[in-house]
Amino acid sequence: MRFLSVALLVVLLSACNGISKVLKSTDPEYKLRMAEQYYAKQKYLFAQQLYEDVLPYYKGRPEFEDIYYKYAFTAYNQKDYLNAENLFKTYLESFPNSQRAEEIEYMRAYTFYKQSAKAELDQTNTMKAMGMMQTFINTHPTSAKSKEALEIMDTLRLRLETKDFKAARLYYDIGQFRAAAVSFNSLLNAYPDTRHGDEYKLWSIKSYFRLAELSVEEKKLERFEKVIEECNDFNDRFPESGLVKEVENFINLSKNNIKNVSNESTKTST
Questions:
Q1: In this model, does residue 95 exceed pLDDT 60?
Q2: CB atoms within 10 A of CB 35
Q3: Which domains does the chain have, with CATH numbers?
């Protein structure tokens, strides 16, 4: 193991010495040749350093576009997606009529997808990625990448849906049942094609039921009636759902509570 570590260190030092010698050269054509070799060998950090060094020399020359193209991809291939997005953007601004423009438009959108965070975190990059993927599809409807762009948008939409569901569930878990009910119903409106619509509606019913249970006597009647209203809406929307029996249970519980509230009200008035 120690021998391997020493051997690896020797290789790394040798590589670093090699790139240092190339960087010290005053011959931009030699540097470019070496950058191409490093790029072909997927040594993107070294290639990036050399491309960056020769870009000013080749600016305005025919080679410049290809150099900048590969320079942008050295950032992408090192998973430096923030820098790659900026470089792809600059490429499109510098070469709007390039034959590679369509590819770079997609890659720029893709870098936002790669920067998209987990559902629990900020979704700014998710929104940007979705917007840019939609723009790509609209601009290049016949592109071979359009199908992939649609699939990515579905993935990102599910991520946003998951985030919104977790926010609604948090309201429920901390006992904010009115906010939870509204949030679960908002999920249905925001994601009408979701596969979880009946689950969200049931969560809304549960939330309204808990709100009614914990209400003061004067508001219980109205709020249990709201539960029944939500249950009826569920049955209209999802008649084939496997959750129908659970919803029927909430109807029966609410009716019993309404009956009890009415009986108590009658006793009080008499």
A1: yes
A2: 26
A3: 175-265 (1.20.58)
